[in-house]
Amino acid sequence: MKYALKIFIVSSVFSVVPLLLYSLTIPYIHINTMLLIALISLILLFLILYPMVKPVDEIEKKSSRFTSGDYSVKIFPPKDPQLRKIADSLNSMAQQLEEKLDIIGEQSNLQKAVLESMKEGVIAIDYDERLIFINKTACDMLYIEGKYLEGRTLQEVVRVSEIQKFFKKIINEKESQETEIILRENDKYLQLSGTLLYDADNHELGALVVLNDITNIKYIDTLKKDLVANVSHELKTPITTIKGFIETLREGAINEPTNAVRFLDIISKHIERLNLIIDDLLTLSKLEQKSEEAVELKDEQIKPLLESVREDYEQIYSKKKITVDINCDEKLMARINRHLIEQAISNLLDNAIKYSDKKTRIEIGAYEENGQICIYVEDEGYGISEEHIPRLFERFYRIDKGRSRDEGGTGLGLAIVKHIVNVCGGKVD
């Protein structure tokens, strides 16, 4: 409408004003007549121009809505061929822009979804050290809370000095970097991999860092090192003893029947201990393989299983005059692997007998709680200090190393129990 008004005013100036001026040169024409002529001229001019400028005005209004991002409107094609071409071009341009923006939006959402779904943390900053992007995994790793973090400074959001220094090193040295850090407060190990960040035109934007939580890997490495050290130590002790007594026998002790028999008994005892350690290590290896496979489970009655374990150890606990009672409902059943669960309970009962004084009582029981079957072995021993409890189920971990070896323990019994229970889908504590 503004466009039409402008054309009408300009046209009026160039058509009606000269007419009025010409009329003034004719002396017998009255002023009212001149005004009437001018008014009629303006009306005729408006009626002629309005149909011509109305389509232009509509094109101007709707094209301004295109510039504001509203591509849903359509320009109706006017009768004028030239204006129709312009309207068709603008409609086509708006449709193409809308389609391209939809594609860009979908790609952006997809990229964001991929980055948010990564198990690695991702942090990107610009050269002013302001956050361009940080995914949820990185926030969880670094215990960052809050929304709308983009645009805030790295120092304000990520309050870990090692990560701040790592970003500075990437930007200053302009090359990829890798390092490992530990978050002391949580004993969490993180592996950082960083590189410069570029835009589509290969211009430097800032730096990008990917964070990997390697706490479990570090823990497994530590366990492996401890296992090698412990196995070496556990095997070395009996081997050294066996070697020493064999040399003693070679040097002449074999000719003394009393000493020879005693030495051979000691050698036999240590060979048996070596055999037990190797058997337990093989058992653990098999259990670890089974944890990757499906273990066959069947519905079994629990009480007969407990009675079977008690019967196997009757001679051992009878020597110490220990009473072993069973507390379990006859009808109690569970979906288990009978052989494995028997082995786990046997290891627990064996420990209970070893570390119980004479004439004490041990109870093996089972009950249902919250839809789970709980099996327990309870004795009247000395108990376990709290500092030892977190490590009880580690291989070769002993509370009293001397007594454990004297009792014939390999240090692997509770580790086997833990693996059996894990394989069967339960938990032990």
Summarize the structure.
This protein is of the alpha+beta class and 429 residues long. The protein is 56% helix and 16% strand.
Tell me what the structure shows.
The protein is α+β, with helices and mostly antiparallel strands and 429 residues long. Helices cover 56% and strands 16% of the residues. The strands form three sheets. Strands 2-1-5-4-3 form a five-stranded antiparallel beta sheet, sandwiched between helices. Strand 3 and strand 4 (188-198) form a beta hairpin. Helix 2 (31-67) runs parallel beside helix 3 (81-117) and helix 11 runs antiparallel to helix 13 (413-423). The two termini are 83 Å apart. The model is unreliable at 1-14 (pLDDT under 50).
Topology:
Elements: H1 2-24, H2 31-67, H3 81-117, E1 121-126, E2 131-134, H4 136-141, H5 154-157, H6 161-173, E3 177-183, E4 188-198, E5 204-213, H7 215-250, H8 257-290, E6 298-301, H9 302-312, H10 314-319, E7 323-327, E8 333-336, H11 338-354, E9 361-369, E10 372-378, H12 401-406, H13 413-423
Parallel strand pairs: 7-9
Antiparallel strand pairs: 1-2, 1-5, 3-4, 4-5, 6-8, 9-10
